[in-house]
């Protein structure tokens, strides 16, 4: 069967032939239907991620962590049946207390593995076997390919939960009890930025989203369908509007600091993007402003099984409330044979590319 793998430590990805997996008792055999391509995959293929790690005893790693799969074979007595659609979880627990309660997204010692990223083969292959504990059932089968967005969206569901928790330290609701008087500004208009825009719009907040360019107006149009306002910010000369929440998805340190500087009192910055380069000095005045205005800076990664489950219900709801938007985020569907060059270099105009396996 086909698989897309990398040699850890060397740039490039190849489509290779590997043996079909043998299901052991208690495991589920799965047919991969779709896998999404994200920045982490490109970081792995470009040999830019220091945490990339093959499974023990191997030098190569099958990549892919955003997937939709179909159950092919399963033991009786498990809730899944042949034909069920599932989204596999990425991160698998180590031995710390957070991991032991299913919150490996909050792992406290780094002793976890991640499918397709570190220490465990991923889902860019025709078939794989898995422990049913790490499979999230897709109840709404009408989602089809859109369910491949569950994995990126679960990060945003968790980030929103963390924001919700810290926002309760002061009154941040409006006079009507809602959050409709609050403004959130999102840096980066890729799939993560757009999903954050839907998340905050769905709770009634005023959403602004920006990126460095939008040559054909696609991002502006997509934002307006979400009920968000898009603007181009080519460089730092354009100010970031005053906001109650700032979300950084690009990983740029100067964008992160500019966004923090634009926060109103009791504001919250959610840092989600990461990038290995760049720097931005933090001045004494920055520290004073963060202290005096009760600013909270949140770093957040991954999500738990409950966030995958809720991501699926958001996708079902947004499919109807933002008609056509989720579908228009998937800008290319390619067979595995055409995936390696797309994994090496992001095509122009891409929002999300997806590999179709069946
Ligand atoms: Zn842990």
TrEMBL record:
SUPFAM superfamilies: GroES-like (SSF50129), NAD(P)-binding Rossmann-fold domains (SSF51735). One of its GO terms (biological process) is protein tetramerization. Keywords: Membrane, Metal-binding, Oxidoreductase, Transmembrane, Transmembrane helix, Zinc. Its cofactor is Zn(2+). Its EC number is 1.1.1.47. One of its GO terms (molecular function) is metal ion binding. Residues 146-356 form the Glucose dehydrogenase C-terminal domain. PANTHER family: L-THREONINE 3-DEHYDROGENASE (PTHR43401:SF2). This is Glucose 1-dehydrogenase. It comes from Conexivisphaera calida.
